[in-house]
Amino acid sequence: MNPSSVVPAKAGTHPSASPNETIGIGVGEPTHTRGPTEPWVPACAGTTELRAERLAAAGGVRIAGVELSEPLSPELKDAIWRAFLAHHIVVFPGQFLTRGQQFAFAGNFGEVEVHGAHRGEAKRYDVAHVMSNLDADGNPVLRVSKAANYHWHTDKPYHAAPPMLTMLRAVEVPPTGGDTEFANTALAYDALPDQMKRRIAGLRVVFRPAFDESRPVVDHPLVRTHPETGRKALYFGNHSTHILGLPEAESAALLGELLDHATQPQFVYRHRWRAGDLVMWDNRCLLHRLVADDSMRRYRRVMHRSVVRGTVPV
Ligand SMILES: [Fe+2]
Questions:
Q1: What is the pTM for the complete model shown?
Q2: CA spacing 20 to 30 A to 185: which of 57, 129, 238, 255?
């Protein structure tokens, strides 16, 4: 992977110009260039110089050399947000934040879900929460239930206003395996034949938590429009039960066909974790899954997660 150079954020500026001039994130060519590719978008037009590297044709950018444990300057916050909207997945290596610091970082982007808030004010902790493959004795275990995050999903789509973004920070990771894959459902939508786009326009998907079938259902547009970029993306995956108003078999076949389409290699970025990686991603235009492999029953995998609230999908 080539380290990227810093490039002008807009025509007429140049990175070798005076330090006060506007300089954006330079993004190198993706390592995977076959098939549909995210349009190259200058990741930011702020005044902060960042080292950045594009990760895949399907999206993703790696930003090194920033310290997320400290309060962000307005310029850095803006640069990160632009990179996030342009590339959907932002990887920050070497971040060793406390759970409280991670919670504070996530708060730059909106209202963060509070750990334990549903159990009342006394149980409320303003920290990132812990996700692991460990059992009660601290031993690794591979649990593949229908609710497991080994299935392609977007986070908490069964809420009326599902989270806009999720971030995970790798605390302990297996020496191999335990990767996370991300599928770009905006690119996948763009690549659909017009006939299919017409067929699915206006359809709504019913969601219910796969871990609790007693919960009430919600429904969201199968093709949602990103509230900030205006791009259309498929919104479905695990926790979706059926398409409203379609016969059961037709609904299942259509959801299956769309999932097969959206998770083809050209739409996918696979993240190999290293301890200290903090990855934030846009739930509004991505599916993701933890790749189930033998490492999950052999090695500890501990992540700290923060989730930022989103809006009602339209
Ligand atoms: Fe997830």
A1: 0.86
A2: 129
pLDDT of residue 27: 52
* Short-list 67, 83, 72, 74, CA closest to 47: 74
Residue with tokens 């970029």: 229
Going from the Cα of 141 to the center of ligand 1, the distance in angstroms, rounded, reads 18
CB atoms within 10 A of CB 32: 17
Do 275 and 302 form a contact (C-beta atoms < 8 A)? no
pLDDT tens for 136-146 read 999 998 888 78
Question: CA torsion 105→111→115→121, rounded to 10°?
Answer: 120
Q: How far is the CA of 208 from the centre of ligand 1 (A)?
A: 15
Ligand 1 centroid – CA 149 distance (Å): 6
Ligand 1 centroid from CA 293, angstroms: 17
Rg for the chain, CA atoms, rounded: 20
Question: What is the 123 CA–ligand 1 centroid distance (Å)?
Answer: 23
Burial 236-264 (b: 16+ CB within 10 A, else e): bbbbbbbbeeeeeeebeebbeebbebbbe
Q: Tell me the CA–centroid distance for residue 238 and ligand 1, in Å.
A: 10
CA of 27 to the centre of ligand 1 (A): 27
Cα dihedral: 110, 111, 113, 116 (round 10): 150
Q: Report pLDDT for 24.
A: 46
Cα of 201 from ligand 1 centre, angstroms: 26
Q: How far does the centroid of ligand 1 lie from the alpha carbon of residue 150, in Å?
A: 9
> In sequence order, which residues have a C-beta less than 8 Å from that of residue 122 and are 6 or more positions away?
none
CA of 118 to the centre of ligand 1 (A): 20
Q: What's the distance, Cα to Cα, between the start and end of the chain in Å?
A: 37
As given in the structure block, the two tokens for residue 263 are 């998770």
- In this prediction, residue 165 has a pLDDT band, given cuts at 50, 70 and 90, of very high
